[in-house]
Amino acid sequence: MITIEKRTMVRDLILHPYIDGNIFKKIEHSGNILKRAYSMAGQAIQRRHTKY
Predict the structure, then answer these.
(1) Hey, what long-range contacts does 15-22 have (CB within 8 A, 24 or more apart)?
(2) Residue 41 is assigned to a structural domain of this protein
């Protein structure tokens, strides 16, 4: 059985590379038509991640 602390640690390990801010620059300069949606979703995840 995985504990809440271990689950949080795994989540942070997976999300950390995407939350560092560099990914937002790549998204903004991409030609992807969904870049605004991706950017907004990423920012929401970043806010939630830094809240805890």
Answers:
(1) 15/45, 15/49, 18/42, 18/45, 19/45, 19/46, 19/49, 19/50
(2) yes
Question: Rounded to whole angstroms, how far apart are CA atoms 6 and 22?
Answer: 26
Residue 18 has which token pair? 């995407």
Q: What is the pTM of this model?
A: 0.53
Q: Which long-range contacts (CB under 8 A, 24 or more apart) does 15-18 make?
A: 15/45, 15/49, 18/42, 18/45
Residues 13-48 pLDDT 10s: 887 776 666 777 787 788 889 888 888 887 887 787
Total number of domains constituting the chain: 1
- What does residue 32 show for φ and ψ, rounded to 5 degrees? -65, 135
